[in-house]
Amino acid sequence: MSEGEKAVSKTQNKYPWSNYTLKWGRGEPVSTTQYVLYAVQIAAVIILSYLSVVLLGPLSYSGISLFYFVYPFFLVFTMWWGIWGILGAYLGCVIGAGLMVGLGPVASGAYAISDFIPPLVAFVVYRGLLANRGIDPLWRDLTDKEIEGVKAKRVTAWILFIAINGLVVNAVSAELGVGIENYLGLIPPGAFWGWWAGWFFGDLLAMVIITPVLVKGLTGLVERQGLINGGWVT
Amino acid sequence: MARDDVEARTSKKYVRTFIFSMKTGTPIEKLHVITKFFMIAAMSVLALYMFDIPVSKGGPDIIGLIFLLTIVFVLLIISGTSKYLVNSYLLLALPVPISEFIWWLFFDGGLPGAREAFYLWPGFFPIGISTVVLVLVFGVVYYRTKSFVIAIIPAVLLWWFTAMAGAFDFSPLTTWFRLPIGTTYSFTLPSWSVTVALSKALGFAVLIYTSFLFLLTTRDTEIAGAMRQLGLSFKKAFFIALIFRSLNTLLIDYENIRMAQTARAAGVNRKSVFSKIIDLAHVSIPLVATMIRRSTEMGVALYARGFEAAKKVTSFKETKGISYMDVTIIVILSVFLIYEVVLGHSINNLFIR
């Protein structure tokens, strides 16, 4: 057994989530159920993005919501379904929080890059880096004390979860989104930091409240049905 | 497909679109989806460009934006969707241009030009154009909504816009009579502020109503058909169609779950923002669970119908060819784009020198 294989074997013995990696896929073709599921979850993110923008009242301004509750949904979907969750985040922003609230295709396509980055970074960091260091890439350690017999590092998981997804990546997302809208002339220069703060704190609040509920209620169900991607695509 | 079935489908007077149903046989319905997409993309680029022309280059192209907005409304009327739009999205979307006007009026620092005085309160109640605006807007919105609060807010805002400029209130054309009330409160802004803010409001209106034109007049199957025409495989085109077909179903699922939670007194109608987030967290579990269950059922149904084994499939009936009308619209819009964006001309300059 080579050194690399030994290391993988050691990790596999240590953590129950070691089959969730950054490989391309499981080496199997996409089943019809997965095919439909990937499409329907994109549709769900589009609808939730639309509702995130309109639920506080009349159509929100420039597609920015102080209450963008879809943020935790597409983060969790990315952890489950890899590249399809990332695609859902981007299309959700383009169609649901862009076209459907009247932002037009050009502006929507540009500013939606800001929703593409956070799930991409989270997926790479959790599956590629933190999973090997005892942090569950499906975030069950946020709510459970133990995952399949392995004691969860709850405090570390929460600190990393908030630091990576809530502060660093979220700040980059806000900077990109509000910056692009400002560049396109959709947000006045004097209101930049107001919109930035609204974006940042709105996403942070929704993420902290909704993610644990989603993870606690659904990750087990999705995993039992064998619907969680082993890699990027399947 | 049986001939009778094809006839029944083609003889429909209305067909379902993304967010409404569209009358068949209108010129807009006959357009290819690629033309419609090009149209909204071109209009978006034009609106974004027109409202962002710097003051040093002559300022925003307001007449161009009014021209674009007129085109959009004419197209909405031609498509037969204007009644639905008036009943739903017109009022829902109206606060956006109004808010954009206010944002740009007060937060667009650094504009050149002399400062002009504007009223917070002119020291009198002007009877004139502003009063007509107040009564008309209140009357129309109250007639539609039967809510005093919802009607009075846009009415007072629009009244204030027509009364805030000092030049309007001292002109006998716009102010016919004055009722002195209180003292004058005013503030100053750069003279370009109103022009820029107005252009942003018009530009947003163009973006919003052009997007609605697309959503109100486009069918999911048209998009799937267009993807096939562009050379995408059936499975990829069907995947895209599946996304768009699921939108309505999921929206209905969301509404059903929300109502079920309300019926169980789950407190989903609490008013504060914080409570709304918690409510959404509660709604999210059944929503995602329903989504997964539906996907599993649909996946099995597709499998049972031989989706994976299919080699040759029937093409989408809704697939259209590119007509002369499509080519004409694409050419006109391309010329307009080149004239305005590439060559840097402005429709304003044709009228104002």
Structural summary, described in words:
The complex is a heterodimer of chains A (234) and B (353). Chain A has 234 residues and is mostly helical. Chain A has a single domain (30-224), classed as Arp2/3 complex 21 kDa subunit ARPC3, CATH 1.10.1760. Helices cover 64% and strands 2% of the residues of chain A. Chain A has 8 helices and 2 strands; from the N terminus they run ααααααββαα. The model of chain A has no long low-confidence stretch (mean pLDDT 86). Chain B folds into 3 domains: 1-93 and 198-219 and 320-353, no CATH class; 114-190, no CATH class; 232-317, no CATH class. With 353 residues, chain B is mainly alpha-helical. The model of chain B has no long low-confidence stretch (mean pLDDT 82). Chain B is globular, with a radius of gyration of 25 Å. Chain B contains 16 helices and 6 strands. The chains are: A mainly alpha (234), B mainly alpha (353).
In short:
The complex is a heterodimer of chains A (234) and B (353). Chain A has 234 residues and is mostly helical.
Please name the defining characteristics of this protein:
heterodimer, A: 234 residues, mainly alpha, Arp2/3 complex 21 kDa subunit ARPC3, two-stranded antiparallel ribbon, 8 helices, 2 strands, B: 353 residues, 3 domains, 16 helices
Q: Distance between the terminal alpha carbons of chain A, to the nearest Å? A: 27 Å
Global Rg of chain A: 18 Å
- Note the run of SSEs of chain B as H and E: HEEHHHHHHEEHHHEEHHHHHH
Per DSSP, the total helix count of chain A is 8
Helix content of chain A: 55-70%
Indicate the topology.
The complex is a heterodimer of chains A (about 230) and B (about 350).
Chain A: H1 3-14, H2 32-54, H3 70-81, H4 83-96, H5 105-111, H6 113-130, E1 146-147, E2 150-151, H7 154-183, H8 192-224
Antiparallel strand pairs in A: 1-2
Chain B: H1 3-10, E1 14-16, E2 21-23, H2 27-30, H3 33-50, H4 62-78, H5 82-87, H6 89-93, H7 95-107, E3 115-121, E4 124-128, H8 129-145, H9 148-164, H10 166-169, E5 175-180, E6 185-190, H11 193-217, H12 220-229, H13 234-263, H14 273-304, H15 324-342, H16 347-351
Antiparallel strand pairs in B: 1-2, 3-6, 4-5
Helix pairs in contact in B: 3-4, 3-11, 3-15, 4-11, 7-11, 8-9, 12-13, 13-14
